[in-house]
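chain below, 309 aa
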Amino acid sequence: MSILFHILLDIIFPIFLLIGAGALLQRSIRLDLSTLSTLTVYFLLPAVCFVNIYESKMSGELISQTLVFLLLFNILLILTSMLIAKANRFDRKLTATFKNSMVLSNSGNYGLPVSELVFAANPAGMSIQIIISIFQNLLTFTYGFFNSVSAESSGRDIFWKIFRLPVIYALLLAILLKWLHIDIPEFVWRPIENSSNAFLAVALVTLGAQVAFLKITRISRPIVWIVIGRLIISPIIGLLVIFILGLTDITAQALFIASSFPSSRNSALLALEYDNYPEYASQAVLLTTIISGITVAIVVYLSKILFLV
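prediction:
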């Protein structure tokens, strides 16, 4: 239990302290969420991606293991969300919101800071989470959009949205420089590293600001299922896939922890944009984020027991 206490105190509490600071700032001075979101996605996230990939010792085998896990894990998660929605007889619009809330996780603003703290002494764990974050972005702009039955975004629009993400180019550039064994000059590396270090605080303050005014009017059956699906069923499926693939050590730890993160704010944005029960999606983001303070701590604790490094 002492390990669980230290996880709550040293990893979860600092995260929610910054989330709380963001919510307080938003309620008192109204931060510009559009600017903060743009800064995070188009500047800080590419910086943290570049630094961690460039410094990591990830092998081709580790990358392939991560991608195989993500494909199998998300296929099973999508099928499970479809079965739950069908069993509960959700209508078409609610089904779309439910599936997005269960499948799309907050691997960026929430997942990367958690991994940065958990794997502070092992860059490989953070690098795995960056790959997961990029994969989740791709999933959002493909599965998420199609699942929302968009009448306004064509296949070409979705294609360009994916390829406008600078994090993809930061990833490719870091891989290229590592492959060519090119050393980055100190005067260039220092500002990139400083930008990377700023990501954790800005991302969590932004997340806090995003949920500052979300309200929970009542706990309905769809919301209960979203919480169960995202915070309980998802890590169980993740653990099952890890055992099926025979993954161990840091790889297993990072993937297991990543499977437990709360619902992505993108699911709420998609629901709002296409009028698919946006109130449910917003409540799902808020509730899963709050409750994840306990569930993620438990998963981190179990990962350290199940997959000793």
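The longest helix spans residues 278-306. The CA atoms of residues 102 and 226 lie 6 Å apart.
thats it, cya
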